[in-house]
Amino acid sequence: MPASPPRVAYFPDSFHEVNGVAHTSRQFEAFARRRNLPFLCVRAGERAQAFTQDGNAWTLELPRGFLSFLLEKDLRYDPAFLRHVPLIDEVLENFQPDLIHITGPSEVGMLGAGLAYHLGLPLAASWHTNVHEYAARRASSFLRRLPGRQSQAAEETIEGLAMMIAVGFYCLADVLFAPNPELCRQLERATGRPCYLMPRGVDAALFHPMKRRRNPEDSVVVLGYVGRLSVEKNVAHLVRVQNELEPIGMTSFRFLIVGHGAEENWLREHLPRAEFTGVLKGEALATAYANMDLFVFPSHTDTFGNVVLEALASGVPAIVTPDGGPCTIVSDGVTGRVVPDEGFAAAIAAILADPAQHAAMRQAARSRALAASWDSVFDAVYQGYESSPSLRRQAPVAAHGNIDPTYRFP
Known about the structure:
The chain is α/β, with parallel strands linked by helices. It has helices at residues 20-35, 85-95, 107-119, 131-143, 148-170, 181-191, 237-245, 264-270, 282-290, 306-313, 326-329, 344-352, 355-370, 374-387, and strands at 8-11, 39-45, 50-54, 57-63, 69-72, 75-77, 99-102, 123-126, 175-178, 195-197, 221-226, 253-258, 274-278, 294-297, 318-320, 336-338. The protein is 40% helix and 18% strand. The strands form three sheets. Strands 3-4-2-1-7-8-9-10 form an eight-stranded mixed β-sheet, with helices on both faces. A six-stranded parallel β-sheet has the order 13-12-11-14-15-16, with helices on both faces. It has a two-stranded antiparallel sheet with strand order 5-6. The longest helix is centred in the middle third of the chain and has 23 residues, at 148-170. The model is unreliable at 132-136 and 393-410 (pLDDT under 50).
């Protein structure tokens, strides 16, 4: 970290919600506070407008209005968010950022990108969500009414168009961040912008094997899932796993499913062995993870997979697909298995049939998670800021509040 770190104005897509972007954003702000870095977080919330300044950490929270509409159970979009521009502009003038960092094409992200252009500031953008894949998966329920080939072609067209739009948006940035190496390479090829790694960390003190509260005599295997219960997470595959385990003689198991979403009712109907907890946080979530025997995460669209890392920290090996970020977290055969959809049931059965292998995987999973701290993640982000010539453009700095009038972006 340089002696005079850049002044960062951060515009996250979400902050208070239950998702990877929000969790990362909360951790980013907490990191800046711990390090006493000049950091302004401009975010949306449901409460009244609020501005706070705690040393170098500034926060501006702005309410969404009556025109906002629901995207998920706890995620909204406000097409009239532009009404906050005068206030944001005033706060930016006083904070005097050296760069603006956005997390995606939400109303907050688009506003941040527009303000960076208007103020002549460098723009950093981090890719957290495969919006093109989400769009295609969401559309698939409607496209199923078409004949097979037409349905597949339409889904591919929607995914391609969504990707083109997303890439066009990210081309507005001077530098990009992404949570896994393959995605970084894809973005660099598609946008021509440099892309740096921004993976995720884990609180290994909160998520810990010692949080396990199950009776040692309990021999029922617990297969866990944590996340949104939505089509893009491929949660319907959990039913297939259940239906494939039973014929091979594995009947002493149950699912522990943490989260909420549009597919919950369908899953309740088709997973009679499952316990649905709803959304859990803090110690309750940590206990839920630790009570699992294996973590089953069938998503093909996650760019990283915070929940997978949390499971590993809890000493729970994970079964994931070869697609997206989770396969970069799990070491196949060491901390879990990386298999296609059709291999999930066999992988689960094989691990549980060998108690020694299962115990070794539990230990390896914990060791893997201990190497992933949030501080190392955000130290690397600031190194990315410093390493990118496009972010080293001069930004005018005025003597406002506690700002050093002699400071210039390196």
